[in-house]
Amino acid sequence: MQSKHILLDDTLEEMQAYLKGIGQPAFRAKQVYQWLHKGMGFEDMHNLPKTLKEKLSEECIDLPMTLHAEFPSQKDDTVKFLFACQDGNLVEGVLMHYHYGYSLCISTQIGCKMGCSFCASTIDGCVRNLSAGEMLAEVLLANRYLGDRGKIGHVVLMGSGEPLDNYESTVRFLRLINSVDGLNMSLRNVSLSTCGLVPQIRALADEKMSVTLSISLHAPNDDIRREIMPIAYTYPIDELMSAVREYVAQTGRRVIFEYALIDGLNSTTAHARELAKLIRGLQCHVNLIPLNYVDESSLIPAKPAAVKDFLEALESLHISATIRREMGTDIAGACGQLRRRHLQTGVEIDTM
Ligand code: SAH
Q1: Who lines ligand 1 at CB under 6 A?
Q2: CA distances to 70, 177, 204, 212, 306 from 275, in Å
Q3: What's the mean pLDDT in 128-151?
Q4: pLDDT bucket at 103, cuts 50 / 70 / 90
Q5: 307 domain residue, yes or no
Q6: Which residue has a Cα nearest atom 6 of ligand 1?
Q7: Which domain, by its residues, includes 40?
Q8: Average pLDDT score over residue span 230-253
């Protein structure tokens, strides 16, 4: 396993301490930090002495990921990435082009242990957490891929993994991406999606980081939620809602509810009314997602007419809601599908 120091995991202060320990003057840390956060390797750090570059290469890793493969959609500007970790594990990311710029969906764990029945990421369980530097490397590699076309302006923690099950590294990643000597990304441009780990939502509220919180709700009550999301046994909806209210109160940020519409389960207008009642009065928005087919799951997406009726039912009750635009469905758009297909076949997947 990994023995070298992943320098990209470090805060500037930690990097200062490390470089001081190997006899370097204080200003070097900032130089190294700035280079690394531009996605550069040690050999490209032109203003460092050769001996230092050699020492860093011996003891440390610059970029802990490589871009293993890319799958551009034939239908839109979406590109799906497979990133390779140093230990050979693969994770996925999705690059999306919106009118406001480029957004990258990143993974926070290799696999996931949450067990949601509609999600491909969780089928083989969780291999390990990603470190903060690995998450950051996903963004840096996407920036490198974009080159002159632009930079990633928004990040969503909505790829494989449950970010709040990897709390420490996720919060560290948020601080790194927000740092002035790094990408300096406003945390308002970062969305964190969770299946609803209540203590960690409360802890995140206390960090007062103004990250946009997305809750994967997918049901208006515990009975339905428990059919598809095991986490609902641990944290019932009323506890989840009270943590969400606290998050909104502490950060002033509007919360997003993700709701995948599944045929015969959660997608009638009666469910829409129940949902409206549940979230009434909360500063929130509902993102309706047409369920993506996952081969291993028997769940069926709701019909387009049902999706439209559901939306109209929410709107008539003055709940802010939209249907999420489907992007990159031809390139295994649903979370975890691409990595699984790749693991199963071991060959480059067909993008048609
Ligand atoms: N673990 C986090 C983030 C990863 S999943 C979470 O649960 O929020 C990202 C989003 O994709 C979640 O809202 C998840 O519920 C949704 N999702 C997963 N599989 C899906 C599928 N087959 N169709 C539609 N949405 C799916």
Answers
A1: 114, 116, 118-119, 158, 162, 193-195, 216, 258, 260, 289, 291-292, 294, 334-335
A2: 38, 34, 25, 20, 15
A3: 98
A4: very high
A5: yes
A6: 194
A7: 5-61
A8: 97
